[in-house]
Write a structure and sequence with these properties.
The chain is α+β, with helices and mostly antiparallel strands and about 190 residues long. It is built from eight helices and three strands. The chain has helices spanning about 1-5, 10-25, 30-40, 50-65, 70-80, 90-100, 110-115, 165-185, and strands at about 120-130, 140-150, 155-165. It has a three-stranded antiparallel beta sheet with strand order 1-2-3. A hairpin with a 5-residue loop joins strand 2 and strand 3. GO terms for molecular function: NF-kappaB binding. Pfam families: COMM_domain (PF07258). This is COMM domain-containing protein 6. It comes from Hypocryptadius cinnamomeus.
Length: about 190
Amino acid sequence: ADKIRLIPQDFFAELCEQIIQHLNHKIPGINTAELCQRIQTSGVDINIGDLAKVANTLSFLFSTAARNNLSTEELVTSLGSGVSTLPKHAVQVIRHVWNEQGKAIAVAEDARNTAAVGQFVDMKWKLGVAMSSDTCRSLKYPYVTVTLTVADPSGQITDRSFEMTIPQFKNFFRQFKEMASVLETV
């Protein structure tokens, strides 16, 4: 509740909207890094870890409310009976978002199980050559750097990077081609 008090109402509403969209499988996740930067630019002192905790809590709140088919009033009542009370603006935003979009949350068992492993969002790669290092004067070693953008089950978008040798990348590419051909037959 203390961290939620720091977030201005418009940013809190945007966060809630993104979480609902994520739970409805309309977007792959919530980009807390970008949202945190915008909140900090507006003059609020909040770090990305705290914003991620708020996002996880709200995601849990909305998914639990959907699973239990709570009405707007039941949700607001249960929020009021919590140990630490939420700020009034937060309750108003949650009430509005839940009233407008809460009923649309898909809570099918299959959708929940699929979301539990995360979701692939994007992949970028670049080719590089290591020319030399402090221990070796002449490397001339080509490599491929791959960056995968993934939304974890809570909706947090993260980038994961790794490097591969050219033979490893060729094998990686071959496996992707095999997956594509199998997907075409489905």
